[in-house]
Design goal:
The structure is a single chain. By secondary structure, the protein is of the alpha/beta class. It has three domains: 1-83, no CATH class; 149-237, OB fold (Dihydrolipoamide Acetyltransferase, E2P), CATH 2.40.50; 254-520, Purple Acid Phosphatase, chain A, domain 2 (4-Layer Sandwich). The protein has helices at 3-12, 18-25, 30-44, 51-56, 58-65, 70-82, 127-146, 205-213, 270-280, 285-288, 318-329, 399-405, 407-412, 419-428, 490-495; strands at 15-16, 48-49, 88-92, 95-99, 102-106, 110-116, 166-179, 185-190, 195-200, 219-226, 231-237, 254-258, 290-296, 337-341, 371-373, 378-384, 387-394, 460-463, 470-474, 477-481, 503-508, 514-518. A seven-stranded mixed beta sheet has the order 3-6-16-17-18-20-19. Strands 15-14-13-12-21-22 form a six-stranded mixed beta sheet. A hairpin with a 5-residue loop joins strand 7 (166-179) and strand 8 (185-190). Helix 1 runs parallel beside helix 3 (30-44). The radius of gyration is 25 Å and the shape is globular. Mean pLDDT is 84; it is low at 93-108.
Length: 527
């Protein structure tokens, strides 16, 4: 360890949790390390500094960090990010242009803000945390629904509904749904004051279809008439997402979207991805406009993800797989900022939300200057003056379960049109709306705020997971599902999923024009 930093720890008499100690130990700048240690000592009020202590005092941390010099500020911010703590980071993007035969640096016009999901509980989890988690989710979605004008007439809590029949608006979480002998629907809603059942008649086709789409744990607004024994529902409102204005920048810059690299897999299409890298470095007019690339999860194939996976790997360790990924990323021009979130195959806790990719297994990624690791999900805001373009990154662990549960998606065979799945998440304003809907989805309960609620409507929602490129527009929100760089696996062949590798959506931030570039080729078609 750096002797100067070690001396500082001894002088201050601080005890650091091993993970925090390892990160401080990796800092090359003693001044930045000193700033970090002084901050945590100031707000902690104790000698033992743990991740839980920092997370509990995160608001105070932000205030101290914002007072630091810019160079130290960025280094200290990155320490907190590596700890997987919720933090907002603001940085400038480097903008360069060619003047004559020389490359000239110019003042940056676009900066970015990062909003990480809170991935770390500050104490041992028990049953009460799940109760608090769902209470927080309900309250967040309730606030969104209360702004809908359709629900503002006679809006009451469930315990205020009297025995006299009259019209009401309520906001409730779906507790149970069942079909009666007459093929009507009975839905039980609950809020923080109680629960009540509502009936939807089968002959009311429009509302019956909407009610049939409801899933357990959905939070919706309901217009109904009735009393405290039974409500007769005549309309249902989802929280829904609306983006009335399409934000555009003055800077002629573009963003590319990539996911599901699966580096290390026998089915990884390396030559195909190299064609994309060659294009980025080709001097092509469209390529020179790329300022950002979003990598939306499953960047490597992982180890031990499913039984027998070792027989389908060319690279058997996480380190080897991330070294291959890093070798690709190092070939991306340095003026391009890369944002990367994890997926279920990456080296991080498989939970919703997911922490950033671990340095322990992917040290090579931490050496790439223009790579920004983020949580899954994460909100990235590109800023030009007062204008913001908001990108919501979510890999898509909830997609498969949602397709099996919602009739429309099942009929559409939505594995082949993944943007349709994102529409339902935007409609519900939640990235994994049904608790326990998939064994692969493990919640990290948070009694303060559910990090999977889409509290702020994004301009662009970018996803991966289903290995097919797709683009949709939903109420002004642009949905971009990324392609993959892996040929059809035995599992995909078994379930009938047909991947569409080598497609890269490109969004121009000035014109909002989107193109789909195809880097697939016959040389790896039969792989």
């Amino acid at each position: 360890m750096n002797e100067e930093i070690l001396k500082l720890i001894r002088e201050k008499g601080i005890l650091l949790e091993k993970e925090i100690f390892d990160i401080v130990n990796s800092i090359n700048d003693p001044k930045a390390a000193k700033s970090f240690l002084e901050i945590v000592q100031t707000f902690a009020g104790q000698k033992l500094i743990t991740r839980a202590v920092i997370n509990k005092n995160i608001k105070f941390v932000k205030n101290y960090v914002n007072k630091l010099e810019i160079a130290n500020k960025e280094l200290v911010e990155n320490i907190f990010v590596r700890l997987g703590l919720s933090f907002e980071i603001i940085k400038q993007s480097e903008v360069r242009h060619i003047g004559g035969d020389e490359e000239v640096a110019v003042a940056p016009k676009i900066k970015y803000k990062l909003f990480y999901a809170d991935t770390t509980p500050d104490k041992k989890i028990d049953v009460s945390d799940f109760v608090g988690h769902f209470r927080a989710r309900y309250q967040e979605l309730q606030r969104i629904l209360m702004n809908r004008p359709e629900l503002q007439q006679n809006l009451v809590s469930i315990n205020k509904i009297s025995s006299n029949r009259q019209s009401h608006s309520i906001i409730g979480m779906v507790k149970e749904k069942r079909v009666t002998k007459n093929r009507n629907l009975i839905i039980t809603f609950e809020d923080l004051t109680g629960e009540i059942s509502g009936l939807v008649r089968e002959d009311n086709k429009e509302i019956f279809e909407k009610a049939n789409e409801l899933q357990v744990d959905d939070v919706v607004g309901v217009r109904a008439s009735g009393n405290n024994e039974l409500l007769f529902i005549y309309n249902i409102f989802f929280p829904d997402a609306f983006m009335p204005e399409k934000m555009k920048f003055d800077e002629d810059v573009s963003a590319a979207f990539v996911s599901d690299m699966h580096c290390g897999s026998t089915f990884h299409l390396g030559k195909m991805f190299e064609k994309f890298l060659n294009w980025l470095n080709s001097g092509d007019e469209e390529a020179k406009k790329i300022g950002y690339i979003f990598f939306v999860g499953d960047n490597v194939d992982g180890v031990g993800i499913f039984p027998g996976q070792q027989n389908l790997l060319t690279l058997k360790t996480m380190k080897e797989q991330y070294d291959l990924l890093a070798s690709y990323l190092k070939r991306i021009p340095k003026n391009i900022t890369i944002f990367m979130c994890p997926g279920q195959h990456d080296a991080t806790r498989v939970a919703e939300p997911q922490p950033i990719i671990s340095r322990r297994y992917a040290p090579a990624l931490y050496e790439i200057e223009n790579l920004v690791l983020v949580t899954n999900p994460a909100m990235v805001k590109l800023c030009e003056g007062e204008r913001e373009l908001k990108f919501l990154m979510y890999h898509g662990a909830s997609f498969n379960a949602l397709i099996h549960e919602i009739k429309e998606l099942k009929v559409l065979k939505a594995h082949s049109c993944p943007a349709k799945v994102s529409k339902h998440l935007l409609k519900r304003r939640h990235l994994a709306p049904m608790h326990g809907m998939s064994k692969s989805i493990v919640y990290t309960p948070n009694a303060e705020k559910d990090p999977l609620v889409i509290s702020e409507v994004p301009d662009v929602m970018c996803t991966g997971d289903l290995h097919r490129a797709d683009i949709e527009n939903y109420n002004g929100v642009l949905i971009i599902a990324s392609s993959c760089w892996e040929s059809q696996t035995p599992f995909e062949e078994k379930v009938g999923n047909i991947p569409e590798p080598g497609k890269v959506p490109i969004l121009n931030l000035k014109t909002r024009q989107i193109k789909m570039l195809d880097f697939s080729g016959k040389e790896e078609e039969g792989k």
